[in-house]
Structures are given as structure tokens and as C-alpha cells.
């Protein structure tokens, strides 16, 4: 079996391989072996060159590493000396700083004590003044309370006397009105009895009899003042087409608005005014 198959030449009669063809195959095999040997020699040469390059690289690396170690040791020594020098300077600066802090702390403590003493003295003085002011104020309150109590007692006594006088006046008026009213009741009872008994003539006579009327009630000064106040409020409300509140009505009438509550309520009950929310309007 041949590895290479160069062009074959066959005889026309026998079809066998000629000697020339065998010679060509042998030459091809020698050529292949030579090529392989040349490639092997080239690879060996390349490997030898690579080994030399690796050796040179290793030599340069050892040299560079030795130089680097030397530089590193030198830098370490320099840095160590600089570090020791810096630590020494830092220790010296720290000691100076601590000394300065101690002196400053003592000075600040002394100043703080002086300020605290001054503040304590001023505070004690202020507290003493406040206590004196409070004492004077309490005494003033006590005196004013006594004065107000006396004045209030007088006002209550006067108010009580007024109430007693009003009650006595009302009792006298009631006594005056009660007698005619009792007469009217008796007359009405008599008429009712005559109607029940069928006495028409007597009923007619009773009907023609003039009826006694109770005397007209006289108004007290307080009632007259209330009526005047109601008229004043009504005029004020009628002059305010957009409505008016009690406080505004009090300002216009010159009367404290709380005193207007009862008269305005009476005007509402009489239908003289109307109310929307907190404003009062003229009745339509």
C-alpha cells in the first residue's frame, strides 16, 4: 500500500506498474522524510532559541528582582526613618497641644466660675425682687378685694332694696286690680247662673248693665326704659337693609349687646323682626 499516489502510467497490454513509477514513489518517500527531518531540526533550533530567550528573561528577572529588593530595602529604611521622625514630631506636637489645652481649660474653668458666681448673684437679686413684687401685688390684691367686696356689698344691698321696692309696688298694683277683677268674676258667675235658669229678662238686664273695667295699668320706669330700648333697636334694624348683628346693633345704639338679647327676642316673638343666622332683618 502506497501513501502517495503520483500519476500512474500503465501499459496498454499487461496493466502492471512500471519501474519508473516505483522509482517516483521512493523519491517521494525520501522527500517526505527529508521534509520531516528539516521541520524537526527547525523546531529543535526554535526550541533552543526559546530556551536561550527564557534563560535571558530569567536572568533579567533575577537581576531586576535583586535591584527591586535593594530599592525596597532602601525605601523601607528611608520610610522607617521618616516615620520615626514624624512620630517623634507628632508626639512633641501632641504634648504641646495637651499643655495648651490644659492651660486653656484652667483659664476657661476660672472664667466659667466667675461668670457662674456673677449669674448666681444676679439670679438671687432677681428672685428677691420678684418675691418683693409678688408680696406687694398680693397685698394690693387683698386691698382691692376688700374694696371690691365693700362696693359689691353696697351694690347688692341697693339691688336688694330695689327688688323689694319693685315687689312691694307689684303687690300694691295687684291689690288694686284684684278687687275689680273679683267683681267681674262675680258678675260673670251671676250671668252664667241666669243663663242656666232661663231668665232671659235678667240676662238682658245684665247685658245692658255697664261693665266695670279695671284701671289702666301704670308702667314702671323699668318697663318704660325697656319699651324705649325696643323702639331704638327696631329703628336700628329697620335702617339696616342688609341685616345687623347684636354686636353691631349695640355699637350703633350705645348699649352693651348682652342687654339687647331680651328686647330682640320679644321683637322676634311679636313678629316685628326676623332672624337669619346671626343677623336680624326688618320683618316683611
Explain what the structure shows.
The radius of gyration is 69 Å and the shape is elongated. Helix 1 packs across helix 2 (200-208). Residues 1-17 and 199-217 have low confidence and may be disordered. The protein has helices at residues 19-197, 200-208, 221-238, 246-253, 261-270; strands spanning 273-276, 279-282. It is an all-alpha fold and 284 residues long.
What keywords describe this structure?
284 residues; Arc Repressor Mutant, subunit A; two-stranded antiparallel sheet; 79% helix; disordered N terminus
Write the layout of secondary structure elements.
Elements: H1 19-197, H2 200-208, H3 221-238, H4 246-253, H5 261-270, E1 273-276, E2 279-282
Antiparallel strand pairs: 1-2
Helix pairs in contact: 1-2
Amino acid at each position: 500500500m502506497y501513501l502517495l499516489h503520483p500519476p500512474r502510467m500503465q501499459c496498454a497490454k499487461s496493466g502492471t506498474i512500471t519501474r519508473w513509477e516505483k522509482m517516483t514513489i521512493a523519491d517521494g518517500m525520501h522527500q517526505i522524510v527529508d521534509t520531516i527531518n528539516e521541520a524537526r531540526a527547525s523546531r529543535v533550533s526554535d526550541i533552543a532559541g526559546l530556551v536561550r530567550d527564557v534563560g535571558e528573561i530569567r536572568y533579567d528577572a533575577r537581576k531586576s528582582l535583586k535591584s527591586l529588593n535593594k530599592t525596597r530595602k532602601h525605601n523601607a529604611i528611608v520610610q522607617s526613618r521618616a516615620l520615626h521622625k514624624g512620630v517623634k514630631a507628632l508626639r512633641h506636637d501632641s504634648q504641646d497641644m495637651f499643655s495648651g489645652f490644659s492651660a486653656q481649660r484652667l483659664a476657661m474653668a476660672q472664667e466659667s466660675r466667675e461668670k457662674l458666681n456673677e449669674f448666681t448673684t444676679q439670679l438671687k437679686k432677681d428672685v428677691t425682687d420678684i418675691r418683693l413684687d409678688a408680696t406687694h401685688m398680693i397685698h394690693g390684691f387683698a386691698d382691692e378685694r376688700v374694696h371690691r367686696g365693700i362696693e359689691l356689698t353696697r351694690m347688692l344691698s341697693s339691688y336688694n332694696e330695689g327688688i323689694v321696692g319693685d315687689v312691694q309696688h307689684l303687690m300694691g298694683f295687684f291689690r288694686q286690680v284684684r278687687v275689680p277683677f273679683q267683681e267681674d268674676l262675680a258678675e260673670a258667675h251671676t250671668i252664667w247662673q241666669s243663663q242656666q235658669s232661663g231668665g232671659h229678662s235678667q240676662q238682658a238686664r245684665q247685658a245692658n248693665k255697664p261693665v266695670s273695667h279695671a284701671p289702666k295699668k301704670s308702667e314702671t320706669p323699668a318697663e318704660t326704659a325697656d319699651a324705649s330700648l325696643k323702639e331704638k333697636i327696631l329703628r336700628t334694624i329697620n335702617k339696616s337693609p342688609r341685616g345687623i348683628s347684636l354686636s353691631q346693633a349695640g355699637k350703633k345704639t350705645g348699649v352693651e349687646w348682652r342687654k339687647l338679647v331680651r328686647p330682640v327676642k320679644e321683637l322676634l316673638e311679636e313678629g316685628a323682626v326676623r332672624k337669619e343666622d346671626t343677623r336680624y332683618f326688618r320683618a316683611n
